[in-house]
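Lab notebook: predicted structure, single chain.

Context: the supervisor wants predicted structures on file for every construct in the current expression panel, including those that have not yet been purified. This is the next one on the list. No modifications to the sequence; it matches the entry in the shared construct table.
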Amino acid sequence: MPRADLAPKNLSRMNLDRSDFSRADLRDASLTGAYLRGTDLSDADLAGADLRGPHLAGAIVAGCTLAGADLRGADLAGVYLRAAVSPGGAALGYAGAPE
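Prediction complete. Output recorded below exactly as produced.
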């Protein structure tokens, strides 16, 4: 499948649950408050993306690039971030499972 170029698109607050964004170019995209539960983001480039407050529960992020991405307030329940690449340091702030 060809790599989708969605940079720098505004996808804020969109319901993208269970979408396939594997290998997608989402550099500098705005995904603030987007619904990305169960979405495949494997090998996607999310460098510099605004991911503040999205619903990422169960998303697949293996091999994705998060350099400079802002993940503050993101719902990361069930997300395995260890396999994600973050050479420039992503801003995680209070990201994580909701209390």
